[in-house]
Amino acid sequence: MRVALFVTCLVDLMRPRIGFATLKLLAAAGCDVVVPEGQTCCGQPAYNAGDRPAAIDLAKKVIAEFAGYDYVVAPSGSCADHIRNKYPELLAGDPDWQARAAALAGCVYELTDFLVNVAKLERVPGNFAGSVTYHDSCSGLRGLGIKDQPRALLAKLPQVELREMTGAEECCGFGGTFSVKFGDISAAIAEKKCRHLCAAGADAVVGGDLGCLLNIEGKLRRLGDETTQVLHVAEVLAGEL
Fold first, then answer.
1. Over the stretch 16-57, which tens digit does the pLDDT of each residue have?
2. Distance between CA atoms of 206 and 200, rounded to whole angstroms?
């Protein structure tokens, strides 16, 4: 399979090792991976801010850069959801671009969904040992149905114990521009999430969207928790910590 990796802005800027972990996992699944060099943003921030023209321009850029691959994989439910579910809507007024958007949408996958349902990865290369609790990000869960896939992959690590937290499916308070526009509400939601994950007593909180993880880690540290690890699922599965 010829697979294009959509790195995502946050991974590129904030934690590049997630991208390398994703490459390692895709290689373990037997994929021929290409990382298009000109890629930038999927356009979701512009879309959420109401800048439709910029969102459309970025959608066209991504469509052009990622056309022709068997699959496109992103270590982010948020970006994958935007490309798959919002691009056809954004380009509905242009038959040619809408068709191209639909074609891309049909081959775009969030990482764990791809590894479980397309590549059917049997073994993961990581060796993480300890307890984890999993945070289900809003876009991945509600937009793409990402729930069982990361847990199934974590179960392949024999030394990992999954401890489910109360409210695992509840928002962490990030929500992209929401956390900027409604800071006080966002902070309160994040604090509730952190109380739940701390109560689970796990060594690490794991998730599939770096935006959520950065928000959770920031609140944890401000609450005085300096020990709980905050990890992307790709880092755990690939052993890139």
1. 999 999 999 999 999 999 999 999 999 999 999 999 999 999
2. 12
